[in-house]
Amino acid sequence: MSKESGKAFDTRLFKRLIAHTKPYRITFYGVALAAILLSLFAVLTPIILKQIIDDAVKGADAQRLLHLTITMLVVLLGQVLSQLSFNYYANWLGESVIRDVRINLFRKMLGFKMKYFDNSSLGVLVTRAVADMQRIGEIFSQGFFVIVADLLKMLVAAGVMIYINWRLALIVFAVLPLILYATRLFQKAMKVAFTEVRAEVSNLNSFVQERITGMRIVQLFTREKIESEKFREINEKHKNAWLKTVWYNSIFFPIAEIVSSITLGLIVWYGGLQNVAGITDDVAGTVFAFIMLIDLLFRPLRQIADKFNTLQMGMVAANRVFKILDTDSSIDDLGHIEKSTIKGDITFKDVRFGYLEDEEVLHGISFDVSAGETIAIVGATGAGKSTIINLLNRFYEINSGLISVDGVDVKDYKLASLRSHIAVVLQDVFLFADTIANNISMKDSAIGISEIETAAKAIGVDEFISSLPGGYEYNVKERGTMLSSGQRQLIAFLRAYVSNPSILVLDEATSSVDTYSEQLIQKATDKITQGRTSIVIAHRLGTIKKADKIIVMDAGKIVEIGTHKELLKKGGYYSNLYEAQFLAEEVA
Ligand SMILES: Nc1ncnc2c1ncn2[C@@H]1O[C@H](COP(=O)(O)OP(=O)(O)OP(=O)(O)O)[C@@H](O)[C@H]1O
């Protein structure tokens, strides 16, 4: 199957999976019992039918006929009940296990370092949490228990055949290797075909996902025709891969049916001969029972390949999911300091950091921000400005040096406590597909609608939000695409403001917005930075000029620190930057 699974059946992996059924032990044993009952009831039917034909009907015994018919009804009822319980509870167990594993997986993902997400594909993680989970569930609902039930059924059916008429049983067993061989060939072919189908489905998924995400580019560059041609090709491959599985099914099942029929013919013929030879006189009932028993033996055999496939696919999925669960990439949260309030002094002391091991991005950054001060960070693209704010709230761990808040190493704070004092407004604002109110309060029950409205009035965005249909209850839909980038940033300002942080980190948007939004943003910026330590990656001259200190960065180093006036006077990097970037803005 896949190189990930290694061997055909991984006992260690299976044991680990079964361990997840521990909270549902009673159901687990209940399903196992239903499987046993199912196989027993299944073989009881042919036995009773044989007795009805050979004893009651032939012997014209009405009393016995009535008893046997009632017994038959009871058996059928038992069969229906055990089938029902088996189906329902095997699925219930599967769904319960995947719910638990999925919750564990998501919890694990919530604790991962940003580095983990930098190196993982979104599509892969979504597949692990959704499609792979379904496959794991199928191990229980369609794989493991069904195989056990089928094997039991086959075993009991074979035993009953020998018991009823061992000579006829031998004929059936003689055909078994032929069916087994055909099944094996079929299984192998289907495995290859299904691997192909899965690869094509995955191609389809990523193609559609990417084109929908990048639809703007597709349409801007008028690539519609080329893309639809490419899509046709992928679809064609997908169709052909599916047809291969249909073809194998179309060959295998009729062949299996023919072998079954030939076996039946042999049974009838040999049974008849036995009757003629006087070896047995209950040939009618025996042949009837054998017809049913053969079906009980051959039908599961034909389907067992499919079930093994389900089991194996589930195991591969489980292996992948467990790999994520075993990943040691969680953020260290070993600090114990929890503070209900902080002043907001920040120190970076000779901080060195790189996203990749051998590629340092910050080369010894040192600066201090006193509580209540606003500092602006400026510099060329790729200089390391965003990296600084990524480090303050411990999205990434530094290689060396020290970052402290109120004189305490950020690592010594409890992570949740540290982050509760820092609000971050990024350029690319992320909004959940939810109401504006929920996007602002982030579902913190302590922040009610009246607090949100008061805060919105304070930073001057109440009017804009109220003008939206439904106001604060307006649903911004996926990723907030219903709003402009300026509007999204205003909502992010409000989100930061209501949490009343001691430290505010703001990455000003570079994209230009209309004058009205610009004014709103400027006013909101002034208001939210007031009275709290603020670190602003500044792109607006207004913000830079008002800052208590400007940190000028170039290629991962701080090249200058000072106020706007001081730095202009100095005539260095900042004054060049000012002339190149901001002078025009000022003149305008
Ligand atoms: N997640 C990441 N993984 C690897 N490298 C990264 C990552 N994020 C940023 N970098 C690299 O780190 C360096 C600094 O990036 P950073 O985003 O801090 O620059 P910046 O000054 O904020 O730039 P901009 O103004 O364009 O946002 C760049 O060379 C960038 O390629």
Furnish the topology, listing elements before pairings.
Blueprint (H helix, E strand, L loop, with lengths): L10 H9 L5 H33 L4 H49 L3 H5 L3 H8 L1 H34 L1 H48 L1 H6 L3 H54 L5 H43 L20 E8 L8 E8 L4 E6 L5 H8 L7 E6 L2 E2 L5 H6 L1 E4 L10 H6 L7 H11 L2 H5 L18 H14 L4 E5 L7 H15 L3 E5 L3 H6 L2 E6 L2 E6 L1 H7 L2 H15 L1
Parallel strand pairs: 3-8, 3-9, 6-7, 7-8
Antiparallel strand pairs: 1-2, 1-4, 4-5, 9-10
The site of adenosine-5'-triphosphate has 11 residues, from helix 11.
Main location: membrane
Membrane topology: Multi-pass membrane protein
GO molecular function, one term: ATP binding
Q: Any idea of the CATH topology of the largest domain? A: ABC transporter transmembrane region fold
Please, how many helices? 20
Main sheet overview: 6 strands, mixed
The low-confidence parts are 1-6
What is the element string, with H for helices and E for strands? HHHHHHHHHHEEEHEEHEHHHHEHEHEEHH
Helix content: 55-70%
Tell me the Rg in angstroms: 36 Å
Strand content: 5-15%
**N- to C-terminal separation?**
66 Å
Number of separate strands: 10
Give the oligomer, counting copies of the same chain as homo and different chains as hetero. Answer: single chain
* Principal-axes shape call: elongated
Rounded mean pLDDT is 87
- Name the CATH class of the largest domain: Mainly Alpha
How many structural domains does the protein architecture include? 2
Could you say which small molecules are bound to this protein?
A: adenosine-5'-triphosphate
Keywords: ATP-binding, Membrane, Nucleotide-binding, Transmembrane, Transmembrane helix
Organism: Maribacter chungangensis
Transmembrane segments: 26-53, 65-89, 143-162, 168-186, 246-270, 276-298
Main location: membrane
